[in-house]
Amino acid sequence: xxxxxxxxxxxxxxxxxxxxxxxxxxxxxxxxxxxxxxxxxxxxxxxxxxxxxxxxxxxxxxxxxxxxxxxxxxxxxxxxxxxxxxxxxxxxxxxxxxxxxxxxxxxxxxxxxxxxxxxxxxxxxxxxxxxxxxxxxxxxxxxxxxxxxxxxxxxxxxxxxxxxxxxxxxxxxxxxxxxxxxxxxxxxxxxxxxxxxxxxxxxxxxxxxxxxxxxxxxxxxxxxxxxxxxxxxxxxxxxxxxxxxxxxxxxxxxxxxxxxxxxxxxxxxxxxxxxxxxxxxxxxxxxxxxxxxxxxxxxxxxxxxxxxxxxxxxxxxxxxxxxxxxxxxxxxxxxxxxxxxxxxx
Length: 345
Known about the structure:
By secondary structure, the protein is an alpha/beta fold. The chain has nine helices and 15 strands.
């Protein structure tokens, strides 16, 4: 039976269409809804189809307002996680943080979620902003925590101020969906932040997000991850495509450091295992995103207070979801790409 809720909710959505929604006070009278799905691996944006499907049932029925597109969405479609995801089609894209609801995606008029993975959305946080928080900001927070960053209750200082944990952090792809949150969170933690991005976003990353130093990744220094100040890093929040380990190794401090990889491939996973068994002081750690209600509540509170801001690259109505998908696949969005269920053409 559907759990009636009338407040605004943030939903930890399945593959990466992190959903912002209002839960209806009673189930809708209609039995079908509009959704976007694909029925096989590959095909990119052209492989998405607009369909009518039955309204799902679950612990909490959510009427969708907006969903954000994340790279993990189309990576699943390309078959990069086919060992773990889905065994049969059609498949409505959803976010890879909980496999409990593999057939109920965020690119639809309604979705379902367990009550434990929904939190209230305050009026200070818009639907588009809220749709961006669960997957992207949640990934950034867990990346930094995996690197040893500790956040206090007020998020204005961490143990780093007392000499515990990393002090110099590098964020790659810092103008992207996860990266732009990682820069802000690292600054909230009181860290010195170096960031990489494209030349057109250098000012945005420095002035808009607060990075102390910014590098154009296309330059020799940017490719080598060399900080303009000569600092080497205690931790790296790696949000960009794979890079050779020697590049990270040489950029890390002599005393050691950790690279937390947002999208690890097979080589990164193998290297991580070798680092563990050899007790290497310079380590690569694949990020395994596990949704936590308390972290989501904390992120929403930071957004409510204006301490964590969401940059929206572009918005699309559900009827143009393919365009949003294609833009994400291009890999040059500044901030988040959002699909609004009630959006106009």
